[in-house]
Amino acid sequence: MRSSLLAVILVALAGCRPHGNVQNPKFTAAAEAHDPIAVYEALEAQIDAQTDSKTDREDAYALITSWEEDTAAYAFARAAIAGRLAENRGLQAGGLVTEAEAYARKAREKEPDFREGAATHLLGSLYVAAPSRLLKHGDSETGIELLEKEVEAHPERPIGQLRLASGYITLGDADSAKEPLCAAKGMEDRLGAGDRRLLAKLIEEADGAAALACPAPVGGAAE
Q1: Is the pTM of this model over 0.70?
Q2: What InterPro entries does this protein map onto (predicted)?
């Protein structure tokens, strides 16, 4: 069952390169600083708060593609923003999926643990959600392996646990999702608003909090 992970990146079959307004005032500070991560964070803040307009993702993409940098920060921001735009564009997304894959790979090559595994989380989620025909270097099996290895290396990171759980549920494996869901739930206060909404949705898709039967935290009662 394709489910919540498709919200990370909806894929497409045809279309043209989208255009946007690089002068969008929501990204003025990031543009003036010439800071790709600031562009990404400004867009994510709007999405988290559910205040983004229909054109904000296109405008963020237009801005980020108006310059090019050979850095992990730029590569990650480009991949993430392309993914966010593909999420909105549906059948008109064109090559955004391939672009997101290429730049996420580049970010990992330049800095394997960039932003605490953010590029790995993005790439693994992409491989799980997207049809393999739109990807050059991976598929759902590759994606799950990436996410599993990231969680194994850094179990203390809630976003990694959340992405792994989402990957399992996307592939119809709710049983495997229960452990990372419990882990993410136990660190929920460290997630952003959008990821907390995703966590709640994933728990519902895994038959609800009661079905998870998460163990009580050491020294306290289960929430």
Answers
A1: yes
A2: TPR-like_helical_dom_sf
Q: How far apart are CA 219 and CA 27, in angstroms?
A: 45
Q: Which two tokens stand for residue 76?
A: 């990650």
What pLDDT, in 10s, does the model give residues 57-86? Answer: 999 999 999 999 999 999 999 999 999 998
